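quick one if you have a minute, typing this from the bus. theres a chain ive been looking at and ive put its sequence and its fold in token form underneath. please have a look and point out which stretches look like helix strand or loop to you. anything you notice is useful, everything is just below.

***
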Amino acid sequence: MNPRILAIVSTLLLLAACRQAPTPAEDQAGAAQPGAPAVAVQEEDAPDAAEEEPARPDLPTLEVATIDGGRYDLAEHRGEWVVVNFWATWCSPCLKEMPELSALHTMREHISVVGLAYEEIEVPAMRSFLEAHPVAYPVAIIDVYDPPADFDTPRGLPMTYLIAPDGAVARQFLGPVTARDIEAAIASSGGPSLESLSAAPGPGGA
């Protein structure tokens, strides 16, 4: 082969060999360029799952069938103060507080009530009972063997929860409550005070 041609071929082969293996520095520079492959996140850089915002256990859910054939969903009452009242037809203190709770539900625009009958009773029997003891708020019969998971199993009756407008539990009452008790609890939790409502007639002489 002509010595001149041989020299040219050798030079080309040397140049090709130099470009086959980039240096580590070239690799790093290439990774910094737009369009370069993403660099894997090291374990210490990965977000910690424990730092994610936890679910709020103080926001109970409640979805139950009411005895009038409807459904009650607590989530639909955000923006209101909700009184969740566990009761039973055989509970004398429960029957005593029902008229005041009914008046709260009717006369206070910012308050609504739901009654959860915690006993084994059939719907027709409950309807007959409420004909004799009418209330303005919805009533549902709770399965005593499968009560609402987000509320404590009643240790006694009546048992009442006050739910704030944001859906959180503001207060829990074990034993009978009055309309004044509920309104005082609302005022102490940042709601309307009794004084601000005094101009309007209210339940329980409020």
About this structure: Confidence is low (pLDDT under 50) at residues 12-54. The helical segments are 3-20, 24-31, 92-107, 123-132, 179-188, 194-197. The domain at 63-205 is CATH 3.40.30.10 (Glutaredoxin). The longest strand covers residues 111-118.
